[in-house]
């Protein structure tokens, strides 16, 4: 795949995930420099750099998603559970307040006020003239 002039020819080599992990660990532990790892695995040095960046990004995302004390729960899922607990707490508080209001003031307080019959309106001038 490498010609005498040092230029690569032919198709690019695709690395399996386990090979990518091995490239990353070889470079990370200092067993080989990027150029040496690229030559050993038959890829370009830029591919080795990309593999190392990808591994770093994936590790940082995994650390960011980890919630202390809650193994196996993503931060998004933990937030959903926390909000669900808050909703239940608020629902219980509103129910408690409704029962307290019912016991304190009675159900009649909740009913809409009865419609009052209003006397028909007449202008004052008619009242004054009729007497």
Tell me, briefly, the overall form: rod-shaped
- Low-confidence parts: none
- What is the CATH architecture assignment of the largest domain? Orthogonal Bundle
What percent strand?
under 5%
Q: Report the average pLDDT across residues.
A: 80
Q: Give the count of helical stretches.
A: 5
* Count of extended strands: 0
What is the fold-level CATH name, i.e. the topology of the largest domain?
Arc Repressor Mutant, subunit A
Q: For the record, what CATH class of the largest domain applies?
A: Mainly Alpha
Biggest β-sheet description: none
Look at the helices and sheets and give the structural class.
mainly alpha
When the domains are counted, the total is 2
In percent, how helical is the residue content? 55-70%
Cα(first) to Cα(last) distance is 121 Å
Rg: 39 Å
Secondary-structure element order, as H and E?
HHHHH
How does this structure look, described?
This protein is mainly alpha-helical and 131 residues long. It has two domains: 1-65, Orthogonal Bundle (Arc Repressor Mutant, subunit A), CATH 1.10.10; 70-109. It has five helices and no strands. The chain has helices spanning 17-28, 34-41, 45-65, 75-105, 124-130. Helix 1 packs across helix 3 (45-65) and helix 2 crosses helix 3 (45-65). It is rod-shaped and about 105 Å long. It starts with 16 loop residues before the first helix and ends with a helix. The model has no long low-confidence stretch (mean pLDDT 80).
Concise summary:
The protein is 60% helix and 0% strand. With 131 residues, it is an all-alpha fold.
Task: List the main descriptive attributes of the protein structure presented here.
mainly alpha, Arc Repressor Mutant, subunit A, 2 domains, 5 helices, 60% helix, rod-shaped
């Amino acid at each position: 795949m490498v010609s005498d002039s040092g230029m690569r020819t032919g198709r690019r080599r695709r690395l399996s995930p386990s090979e990518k992990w091995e490239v990353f660990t070889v470079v990370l532990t200092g067993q080989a420099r990027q150029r040496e790892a690229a030559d050993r695995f038959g890829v370009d040095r830029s591919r080795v750099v990309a593999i190392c960046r990808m591994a770093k990004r994936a590790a940082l995302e995994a650390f960011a998603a980890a919630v202390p004390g809650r193994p196996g729960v993503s931060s998004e899922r933990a937030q959903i559970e926390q909000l669900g607990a808050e909703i239940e707490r608020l629902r219980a508080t509103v129910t408690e307040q409704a029962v307290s209001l019912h016991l304190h003031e009675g159900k009649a307080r909740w009913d809409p006020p009865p419609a009052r019959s209003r006397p028909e309106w007449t202008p004052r001038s008619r009242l004054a003239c009729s007497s």
